[in-house]
Design a protein that fits this description.
By secondary structure, this protein is mainly α. Helix 1 packs antiparallel against helix 2. The radius of gyration is 14 Å and the shape is elongated. Keywords: Membrane, Transmembrane, Transmembrane helix.
Length: about 55
């Protein structure tokens, strides 16, 4: 599970860089791409935080 969340986190960061820099999208399409990749990033980061190993004490 955590490996999948790490994969999603990495993929969303790379996809956001692609959308913002190399895709050549403008206007609403770029906003939609950034919002989509941002949602995946936040979801995977939240999942990783919730499933983090907790120490005793």
């Amino acid at each position: 599970m955590r490996a999948l969340l790490w994969l999603l986190l990495t993929a969303s960061v790379l996809a956001n860089v692609f959308v913002g820099t190399f895709a050549g999208w403008t206007g609403g399409l770029q906003v939609a791409g950034s919002v989509g990749t941002g949602a995946v990033l936040l979801g995977s980061a939240t999942g990783l935080w919730l499933t983090r190993p907790r120490g005793e004490g």
